[in-house]
Write a structure and sequence with these properties.
Length: 416
Amino acid sequence: MGKLGTIFGIVAAVLAIVAAGLSFMISGKRVLYEDRAAKLATTVVQVVDKLDQNSNSGAKAAVSFTVAEGQRNGTPEDSLGWKKFLEDPAAFDASLGQAVTLSGKINTQRDTLAKSLADASTGLGMDLDVKELRDLGNDTGVGTAVASIAGHVEAVAARDKAMADALVKAAGTINHSLDAAVLSKREESTDADGKVVKGQFPCVAPLEDFNGKVKGLSTRANDYADAIVAAIRGVSKHTWQADPEKVKDEREYSGALTSLQNDFTDINEQLALYEQAKKEVAEQKTRISQLMEGVEEAQAELRDVKKDLTKVKSENLRLKKIANIDEGAADGPSQDLAGEVVEVNEQWNFVVLNLGRKDRVPENLRMLVARGDKLVARLLVSKVMGKVSVAEILPEANVEAVKVGDRVIMPKEQEE
């Protein structure tokens, strides 16, 4: 028994020593576990603090932990402390659940924003991968994508402004009023909470109106061009410089219009000449009418002369035979008598000479008509007036047609 007691004593001593060692080890591990739990709790609180910034989730107030001196002696440790874990596990789990929920919301929001940005970039003509926008492990890729979207949005805004300015300027060119504000400002309304809500750009109706004005201008320009082409092809009496094929050509029409202006100048000059010609024709008609009146009077006189011509001839011959009158006497015409034909009447076969009583031209005087060195016809004076005389064209001696301006001379001898 003594030996057995000794053995048990030794075993008890060993066990006590082992228990003390284990207690010391367990106490050390407990400290390590507490420190580890404190770091985890602190990290969770820091994560929630970061995620809750500007999110207005309220999670930051519900998830808290503060490492305090003597925390293993009962010092409060907030929602993630040991006491909360031991005394109210449900509240502890709820605090952690809020952190998880906040992380999930942030993740969902990130994915939604990434997809929205990708969709917006597609609508803007870009090709961004939504994975790059969600990839937190590649800060450079995300930054590049965001910068690319921002640059593209800026370029699109500049393009829209340039287009709006160009539209306003174009509208002014065609005398159409287009308000620049309708192209740059969005419609606004107020929701139930009194917040201003942006709507569409009120540009559809003004742009449709502007489009109608442009179409009208285009139609009018085409109608003008068609009218010009039809005029060029219709007025065939004028030799046009303008090419009708170039009038509608947007690259050639400028030269065609210059040629057309030259054509109009030529036509205007031709019209002026035409008006002058009309005036001259009217004056010529008046002169012809006056001449016709004189011719009619001469014809009447000629008819009277013809009636008495035979009697005068017979009486003249009779008197010459009786009185033996010498036709070359001093009171007769000079041998070098000469004149011109000033009027020709082919219908009645007579001419008017610029010789009359002042030249001592007697009736029944025979004259010769010459043109240059050529004999044209023979005349017989039938009526003598003050400055002119009327002479018949003798048909039997008519070589050529007598014309105004032909010379008239007296032959050396007069035929009976």
